[in-house]
Amino acid sequence: MSVAVIVADAAPARSAAELIAAYDAHVDTMRLCASERSARHRSARRFVQRFPDLAVWMRRPTPARLTDLHRLKAWPFISWCFVQRHLVPDVELLLAKPGGCGLPVEWAAHEPDNVAAVAEAAAVLGWSSNWRRQVGLLAASTICLHVGKRVRQLTEDDFAAVLGQLDGLAALSVSARHHARTRLFGLQQACYQLGSLTTPPRQSEPVDRAHRKSPGVLVEIPHL
Questions:
Q1: DSSP output for 129-192
Q2: Per-residue pLDDT tens for 137-158?
């Protein structure tokens, strides 16, 4: 399992009661019907009652955490904790999360300049809308949430730290690790285009020609 990092902008630790109060206030601002808001309030409370120390819960094996989140319907609550930096997510959980959990979209809504930055680079690189989405939402949310930075702040060391963990993530299939690496390479291309990286990225493994539009430019991979 990959380990969480300590970042300078992480929010001070809050008690479970303080987290629930802050989350309740957040949910009450959302455009949800009364029953949906109530369901989110209940699931967050059940989760905190079951796991009152979230830092301890974060050290559980990734498959166990995925089961916990599914059974207690707590992905909205944990996603909010990640986006607000109350918890620092590890790479394994971010990449093993199920489709539709909403975390990348919530991250993008909280800091829309990240998606805009990738879109700016994608326009120059000639990416399709599908590939721009995969890089701008999936890859960017993973690394930005993990290291606590915005897209324009990412460095070569940030990418090296995340890419260096991929082969050791037991909860991910070989295919999932491959797609994560490919999307992160696309994000490196975008960051180089934006000027935040000083060295042109190099793909660490062969990429099928069907994934290229022209030499050095990646296009979409259909798997999400």
A1: HHHHHIIIIIIHHHHHHHHT--GGG--HHHHHHHHTTGGG-TTS-HHHHHHHHHHHHHHHHHHH
A2: 999 999 999 999 999 999 999 9
